[in-house]
Design goal:
Mean pLDDT: 92
Structural class: mainly alpha
Largest sheet: 3 strands, antiparallel
Order of helices and strands: HHEHHEEHHH
Strand content: 5-15%
Keywords: Acyltransferase, Transferase
CATH topology of the largest domain: Arc Repressor Mutant, subunit A
Low-confidence stretches: none
GO biological process, one term: response to stress
Protein name: Transcriptional regulator
Enzyme class: transferase
Organism: Puniceispirillum marinum (strain IMCC1322)
Length: 141
């Protein structure tokens, strides 16, 4: 597991390092890209980090032009997050690198192994995280 994680995150880490970013920035960019208009509070729940940590990450992403923050239309207290074109390009670059690794591994392992792997991954997370994943996957795209 360690070696797979190291190699899976290695290429994106290099790209992020060139931007003076880390994995927390990557996770934020990924989930904002997957769910444009996600609220800061929803992102906090998904990332399971402190408000202070997320604030640092979002401030840097907004300052560097990767993320936009808008006020909610129905609830003015809401802060909704969107990737800029620059943020979308970075998210695509990072995700495509990791997607290629998954595609190669899935091809080599075969369909039965992929289904088993997905069951193993699901088994590694807590029930509350499973519920969160299910609710996130059920949201309209």
């Amino acid at each position: 597991m360690f070696f797979a994680y190291r190699d899976f995150t290695g290429e994106p880490d290099s790209i992020l390092e060139d931007q003076n970013m880390g994995r927390a920035h990557h996770r934020a960019i990924y989930f904002i890209g997957r769910s444009p208009g996600i609220s800061v509070s929803e992102l906090l729940v998904i990332l399971n980090i402190t408000k202070q940590s997320l604030s640092r990450v979002l401030s840097a992403l907004m300052e560097d032009g990767f993320v936009l923050q808008e006020t909610g239309t129905t609830d003015r207290r809401q802060r909704l997050l969107y990737l800029t074109d620059k943020g979308t390009a970075l998210e695509h670059q990072l995700t495509s690198l990791q997607g290629k690794r998954f595609a190669r591994a899935y091809r080599e392992a075969g369909v039965d192994a992929v289904e088993g792997f997905q069951r193993v991954l699901r088994g590694l997370v807590d029930q509350s995280t499973r519920d969160q994943i299910d609710s996130f996957d059920d949201k309209p795209k």
